[in-house]
Every structure is written in structure tokens, then in C-alpha cells.
Amino acid sequence: MDPVGSRGWFARYLSAFNARDYEAFGAYYHPEVDFRGQAATLAGRAAIMDFYRRIHEQVVETVEARSLVGNSELLAVELVTTLVSKGDWPDFPGGAMREGQRRQSVNFAFYDIRDGLFVRIRTANFRRMAG
After folding, report:
1. Which residues lie below 8 Å from residue 83, measured CB to CB, with a gap of 6+?
2. Which of 19, 28, 42, 32 is nearest to 77 (CA)?
């Protein structure tokens, strides 16, 4: 088993996220995790899981880690996020999307870790890519 905070450990998290395995990727979140993202500010695992279920009803989201540095207490990750809209979504949190529209962006995420769980997640958009 890869140690907490390692590239392999985080890769398992992303694999579960990309597979929409909510139980598996949700297991990485502390019950009271603080999430500060571009599209939402959320408190707690349940709120994050509800948010992603709602988002994934409308878009196919895939996240890839380009680079990762950190340890068992803090990770800084450069992520490429790809969204493909399943239908028209005029009030999508990141801006209106049309059916079939594809968006890709580079983002930075910081994951504070305690007892092997994410306790705080902060994300920032670096660059929206053509798509």
C-alpha cells in the first residue's frame, strides 16, 4: 500500500474520482472537510459528495495530475480537468455549457491531510485551455 500523501495514494483517489466511485473517493474526505473551489465553497464530506453527484449528472468530468509535491500532511497538485457536457446547462457553476461542449482547464489544488484524510481542499484555476 502506498503511503498517505504519495503519488500512488493520490492516483488511487483520482482513479476512483474519474470512475465515479463515490464511496471510494469519498473515503479520502474527513467528515468535516473544508472545500474551497472555483465552483463552490462546501463544508463536510456529505456536502461535497452531493455537489459532485449533481455535477456528474450534467457533465463527464475527468481529472489528471500533471505534477504533485508534498507529504502526508500537505499536497500541492497541478491538475488538468476536462468537462464534457451531457446536455445544455445554462447555469453551470463554471459558466453556461451546451450539450457536447468540452472544456479543459489547468488548476492548482492544495490538500491538507490529517490522519490520512483530506481536512481542507483549496483550488484555483490557472488557465482555461482551448476546447
Report:
1. 59, 60, 61, 94, 97, 102, 103, 104
2. 28
Q: Which three cell numbers stand for residue 56?
A: 456528474
Q: Where are the domains of the chain?
A: 7-129
CATH for 7-129? 3.10.450.50
Q: Which three cell numbers stand for residue 77?
A: 497538485
The β-bridge partners of 74 are 112
CA distance 24 to 45: 12
How much is the CA Rg of the chain, to the nearest whole Å?
A: 14
- Please give the model's pTM, rounded to 2 decimal places: 0.93
Residue-wise pLDDT tens digits, 55-92: 999 999 999 999 999 999 999 999 999 999 999 999 98
Strand spans (E) along 44-101: 59-70, 74-85
Name the amino acid, one letter, at 79.
L
